Amino acid sequence: MKAVILAAGYGTRLQRDVAADNSGRFAHLAGTAKPLLPVGRCALISHWVQALSASGCVDRIYVVTNALYQTAFEEWAAHFSNVEILSDQTRSNDERLGAVACLQLAVKHFKIEEHVVVIGGDTLFKEDFSLSKVKQRFSEVQAECEDSCLVLSYHCRDDETQKYGILEVDDDLRVLCMKEKPRPSETKSRRAVSSPRFIKPCPCFYVLSKNSLPLLDTFLEEKKEAPIEEKDAPGNFVSWLISRTLVHTHQISGRFDVGNLSSYTECDLYFREKLQDVESYMV
């Protein structure tokens, strides 16, 4: 199994917040890609590399970034023997390819023909998350059907639905449908007309079966004339995928999504002061 970490974003909200901050406390973050931000004792993305390596889930980790941050990522990756960096060759947010195209780029460039763990480079999870448990759950759904893919989910309040990709799942935790950041009225109407269904957020962490990888080409071909927003959010691909193959979910308690300065400081504080077991985190 391989891992692809999507790290080609430009962090425009965070950089805007850093520039607007007058305290001077966050000046050192200016010009730093979100996955390379210091979170606790190391860079955010280093938590993933350490956990993926310790768990034995994957034998290679590919990080897709952009031309602006490529050098910084290559300097960071020099400390790890199992990490390779790929640039999407863009230099600004307006030029970005979108997360799904970046995933396709990695699959083609590295000739990936195995199952793939896809990870958002600005996301971390609470301490109950375990890559070993994810691997076990994926093995279970693969035993039922080799096409099966796996996503994560957790509970959120109704007023938070517009922040996330929202899943509807059945009692067996099979995903029935997904909407990217729906209005609360949409989730309520879906809940009202469904039998036992549960609505949960879906963070950017997916285990895609090797059989599903060719569908990246199909999706992007269908969306080639679509606005970049439809190709940028990886949840749009998952939503499209659900009607074409089996997708199951694995439940966790929550995540840290580093989007702006406030969410970054919350995440950093947790890892500096509250993380209980640093060595086994996410393993």
Overall description:
This protein has 283 residues and is of the alpha/beta class. It contains 10 helices and 14 strands. It has helices spanning 12-20, 44-55, 70-77, 99-109, 131-144, 184-193, 215-222, 228-232, 234-242, 261-273; strands spanning 2-6, 38-39, 42-43, 60-65, 83-87, 116-120, 123-125, 149-153, 165-169, 175-180, 198-201, 205-208, 247-251, 255-257. The strands form 4 sheets. Strands 5-4-1-6-12-8-13 form a 7-stranded mixed beta sheet, with helices on both faces. Strands 10-9-11 form a 3-stranded antiparallel beta sheet, with helices on one face. A two-stranded antiparallel sheet has the order 2-3. Strand 2 (38-39) and strand 3 (42-43) form a beta hairpin.
Please count the beta strands (DSSP E, at least 2 residues each).
Answer: 14
Order of helices and strands: EHEEHEHEHEEHEEEHEEHHHEEH
N- and C-termini, Cα separation: 16 Å
pLDDT < 50 runs, ≥5 residues: 187-196
Structural class: alpha/beta
How would you sum up the global shape? globular
Could you outline the blueprint of secondary structure elements for this entry?
Layout: E1 2-6, H1 12-20, E2 38-39, E3 42-43, H2 44-55, E4 60-65, H3 70-77, E5 83-87, H4 99-109, E6 116-120, E7 123-125, H5 131-144, E8 149-153, E9 165-169, E10 175-180, H6 184-193, E11 198-201, E12 205-208, H7 215-222, H8 228-232, H9 234-242, E13 247-251, E14 255-257, H10 261-273
Parallel strand pairs: 1-4, 1-6, 4-5, 8-13
Antiparallel strand pairs: 2-3, 6-12, 7-14, 8-12, 9-10, 9-11
